[in-house]
Amino acid sequence: MIENFFFYPDATTYTMPSQFGLRHEDVFFAAPDGSRLHGWWLPALRQPARASVLHLHGNAANITNHLPLAAWLPPAGFNLLMFDYRGFGRSEGRPTLAGVVEDAQAALALLRARPEVDANRLVVFGQSLGGATALRLLARDAQGVRAAVIDAAFASYRGIARDAAAGPLALLLPMVLPSLPPAADDPIGALAHIRLPLLYVHGSADRVVPVSHTDALAAATPGPHAVLRVDGAQHMEPLQRPPVQHAVLERLAGWL
C-alpha cells in the first residue's frame, strides 16, 4: 500500500539525451538489495568540468521523463549522473522509501569512483521525492559533496501524505500513516546531521508539495543555506526557467 501511495514508476521512453545535444553512456550498478540499477552518465560539454552532479528524480516515470529538468547542467559545465531507483525504468526491483535512499548512496559511490570525476567537487541535486531522499542521503554520506540543490522537497512523510490525501483520498490516510517511516527518518530530521551548503528551490504555486514544506526545512537547517522562492511557479517548474537556472549556477559557483 505505502509503495503505491508514493511511487509511480514506468518504463516508457519519453526523451533521450541526443534530443538535447548531449552525449551519454549507459551505466549499471548494484543496489544494496542486489537489484541491478540503470543510469546515464552525461559528461559536461566542456572539460574539465566545474563539478559533477548526482541527480535524484521524483516519484514518477523514470529518468527519460526527468531528463528535461536536468539537461541544462552539462552545457553549463557540469558532469551529470542520472539514475533510476529500483523498480523505475530499466532498474530491477521494487521501490521502498528506505530503498531509494540506499540506491542514492550506491549512485553517489559510483559517481565518486569514475576516473574523470573530481571526488571532492560533487553536487547533489534532488527534486520532490528526490529532494527528500537527498537530505536523508547527505545525513549518511556527504563525502566530497560541496553543495546540494533541493527542489520542491517535502519536510516529513506524514505531512506530505496528509497534503496528498486531501479530498476523496482522505479515506486512505488511516491505512497509509502506520506504514510510513518513523519521524526520526523524516527529511527534516536529517538536517541535524548536514553541514554543507543547501540551496532550497520551490515554486510559490506548487500544489503537489506546498511551499510551506521548504519553509519548514529552511527554518530547521543549522548550516549554510539559501532559499530561492519562485513566484507563480508550479511543482518542479522553477528549474525549467533559464533565469532560475542562472541563479542556481551563480549560487553554486560561490559555494564551489
Structure description:
With 256 residues, the protein is an alpha/beta fold. The chain is 31% helix and 21% strand. It is built from nine helices and ten strands. The chain has helices spanning 2-6, 63-70, 97-113, 129-140, 157-164, 173-176, 187-190, 212-219, 242-255; strands at 8-9, 25-30, 36-42, 51-56, 60-61, 78-83, 122-127, 145-151, 198-203, 225-230. It has an eight-stranded mixed sheet with strand order 2-3-6-4-7-8-9-10, with helices on both faces. Strand 7 (122-127), helix 4 and strand 8 form a beta-alpha-beta unit. Helix 3 packs across helix 4 (129-140). The chain is globular.
Helices and strands in order:
Elements lengths: L1 H5 L1 E2 L15 E6 L5 E7 L8 E6 L3 E2 L1 H8 L7 E6 L13 H17 L8 E6 L1 H12 L4 E7 L5 H8 L8 H4 L10 H4 L7 E6 L8 H8 L5 E6 L11 H14 L1
Parallel strand pairs: 1-5, 4-6, 4-7, 7-8, 8-9, 9-10
Antiparallel strand pairs: 2-3, 3-6
Total number of beta strands? 10
- What is the end-to-end distance? 41 Å
Work out the helicity level: 25-40%
Task: Work out the radius of gyration.
Answer: 17 Å
Secondary-structure element order, N to C: HEEEEEHEHEHEHHHEHEH
Low-confidence stretches: none
| Shape designation | globular
Number of helices: 9
Biggest sheet strand line-up: 2-3-6-4-7-8-9-10
Largest sheet, strands/sense/barrel = 8 strands, mixed
Please state the average pLDDT score.
93
Strand content: 15-25%
User: Structural class, please?
Assistant: alpha/beta
